[in-house]
Amino acid sequence: MAELNDVLGYPIEPDLFRQRLEQLLSRTDHAAFVAEIAPGLVIGWIEGEERQVLAVGRLCEVVGLVVDESHRRGGVARRLMEAVEQWAIERGLAQVSLRSNVVRPESHAFYEKIGYVRFKTQHAYRKLIGKTT
């Protein structure tokens, strides 16, 4: 999974990724699903979280989705999205949202193909204020 994180543009040491994953899996408001072609051989993963947003209420946000380049266009991403959508339904959530980097037009076409509608264009800002873990 950590190696696939590089594909998203976020290189990470496997031990740190493992620590973050363990923390995430202990939370009931987060879910992670993987696609494997053999035990331990992960070709894709997705992370979803339940959010409570003052302006829109409770929803599920996909905060990470990646599929190994050699396994794209084979339905892996669609099945991962379906897994998060089912998780959201089981939690009583009425919507799933996500953000997709403007440099990934192939992803935009995929999301629209599976029923997602672009509803906003925005800028993302970040300020580092301390050590990250």
Account of the 3D structure:
- The protein is an alpha+beta fold and 133 residues long.
- It has one domain (2-113): Gcn5-related N-acetyltransferase (GNAT) (Aminopeptidase, 3-Layer(aba) Sandwich).
- The chain has four helices and four strands.
- The chain has helices at 2-7, 14-25, 76-90, 105-113; strands at 30-38, 41-53, 57-67, 96-98.
- A four-stranded mixed beta sheet has the order 1-2-3-4, sandwiched between helices.
- A hairpin with a 3-residue loop joins strand 2 (41-53) and strand 3 (57-67).
- The longest helix has 15 residues, at 76-90.
- The two termini are 17 Å apart.
- The model has no long low-confidence stretch (mean pLDDT 91).
Short description:
With 133 residues, the protein is an alpha+beta fold.
Helix content: 25-40%
Distance between termini? 17 Å
Mean pLDDT across the residues is 91
Q: Count the strands? A: 4
Q: What topology, given as strand order, has the largest sheet? A: 1-2-3-4
Radius of gyration: 15 Å
Which structural class do you get from the secondary structure elements? Answer: alpha+beta
By CATH reckoning, the class would read Alpha Beta
Secondary-structure element order, N to C: HHEEEHEH
Compute the number of helices. 4
DSSP strand content = 25-35%
Return the CATH architecture: 3-Layer(aba) Sandwich
Low-confidence stretches: none
Can you tell me the CATH superfamily?
Gcn5-related N-acetyltransferase (GNAT)
CATH topology: Aminopeptidase
Shape: globular
Please give the largest β-sheet.
4 strands, mixed
**Structural domains: how many:** 1
